[in-house]
Amino acid sequence: MHTIKIIPVIGLPIIKNGDDLGRLICEAAAKQGTPIENGDIIVVTHVIVSRSEGNVINLDEVIPSEFAKNIAEETGKDPALVEVILRESKSIVRIGGGHIIAETKHGFICANAGVDRSNVPGERNVAPLPKDPDLSARRIRQRIKEISGREVAVIISDTHGRPLRNGEINVAIGVAGIKPIRDRRGEKDLFGYMLKVKQTAIADELSSAAELVIGQADEGIPVAIIRGYQYERSEDATSKDLIRPKEKDLFI
Amino acid sequence: MHTIKIIPVIGLPIIKNGDDLGRLICEAAAKQGTPIENGDIIVVTHVIVSRSEGNVINLDEVIPSEFAKNIAEETGKDPALVEVILRESKSIVRIGGGHIIAETKHGFICANAGVDRSNVPGERNVAPLPKDPDLSARRIRQRIKEISGREVAVIISDTHGRPLRNGEINVAIGVAGIKPIRDRRGEKDLFGYMLKVKQTAIADELSSAAELVIGQADEGIPVAIIRGYQYERSEDATSKDLIRPKEKDLFI
């Protein structure tokens, strides 16, 4: 029997521009008695990554375009916030009910192009997604290796609403050291039937699992360690594998 | 620090028609040294629920309609399998690339209306979704209470492809004893910002977390125990809360 543990990383300081996330995670994990181990998967919420990278925008310093003002009027949103959302977007999927669903420059389709207002210090500050979440994940992974000597995987997660189903779940927007999809086509089931369609989005499942401790009432937990899950290592992993091109989408 | 554990339930027999799943789960959990505890969440894959309920269909006994034959020709699928899929469906969302995306009678939109060919004994046998997955979950929960005296939540899970993103994840298609969505609107974040949009689909996140042990290489693990997650109890929970009506869907 092989139990998986989801360990919240508590005691991290409020993350600010220039902070060394890899070091802070190693220190907090050690301090709480669960030092980083080989094979751990470290799930980090995007907002602290953006904050550590100085990717925080003060809305008072943003001059909204006319188009942003139009959409702000339609949605009831702050025009400066709409401007930031538009700057992060390469297309708008839908506007309605006060919401903007946009495709980010990375290719993620999500509400407000992933621009987060919550858990950002400063009343007028917002945090867009990291500019290159895979690179952010690789940097954190590298720092953890330098500091602890441990080989881990790192996933940057974000909370996404989704088509067809109510409620948000956490998904992976950046990965390092782990293949985000486990391809099981060709394997046989318990009764010898060969699996024809089976590609598990484990990076998304791991992000959702981490959210069970990250999203708990005790706020200020932006990092979780998932321990005991056997995953396929990869040095050139990318979260782009998780994005389905529109022309291949049968659902929409 | 509050760690969550995902415990695979090993040693279950091949489930067949009439089997008492609640009893078998209690026995297997006790035998492996992790007896059911109060507050556990038991995640059960739908295929063993369907098998225990006798909800298995031998394709040799199915006479395909003319429409089923047409779709079989277009998709390259077995006409009898297509007939079963159509019987489970209330609408077809899309047919293409050899796939059928359908809306089940329950309202779930998924490939093949959830009819599973894998992990069903008998070369010509398939397992549709349970007829009423919430009722199935409630029955298992009730039996676990009768046998172990423990108050648990039960989630029936299924593997779903999804719009916009590659790879499948596990989601909840039946729930008992647990509110499937955690509504956090109105709560404040770390910096006092009030959350306006935050309804977490925890039943889906728990299903995905469970899949990390259920979907591992060691086949024959159809059940997981999630221990240590604080959830909102509910006696009248329904998985219907997780289905977003099309007219309210901004993504598609």
Description:
Two copies of one chain form a homodimer. Chain A is globular. Chain A has two domains: 5-55 and 130-244, 2-Layer Sandwich (60s Ribosomal Protein L30, Chain: A), CATH 3.30.1330; 57-126, CofE-like fold (Alpha-Beta Complex). In chain A, the strands form four sheets. The first copy, chain A, has a six-stranded mixed β-sheet with strand order 1-12-2-8-9-13. In chain A, strands 4-5-6 form a three-stranded antiparallel β-sheet. The model of chain A has no long low-confidence stretch (mean pLDDT 92). With 252 residues, chain A is α+β, with helices and mostly antiparallel strands. In chain A, a hairpin with a 2-residue loop joins strand 4 and strand 5 (99-104). Chain A is 27% helix and 24% strand. Chain A has helices at residues 21-31, 46-52, 66-75, 79-88, 133-148, 202-214, and strands at residues 4-8, 41-45, 57-58, 89-96, 99-104, 109-111, 125-126, 153-160, 169-178, 182-183, 199-200, 223-227, 233-234. The first copy, chain A, starts with a strand and ends in an 18-residue tail after the last strand. The first copy, chain A, contains six helices and 13 strands. At the A-B interface, strand 1, strand 4, strand 9, strand 11 and helix 6 of A face strand 1, strand 4, strand 9, strand 11 and helix 6 of B. Strand 1 of chain A pairs antiparallel with strand 1 (4-8) of chain B, so a sheet runs across the interface.
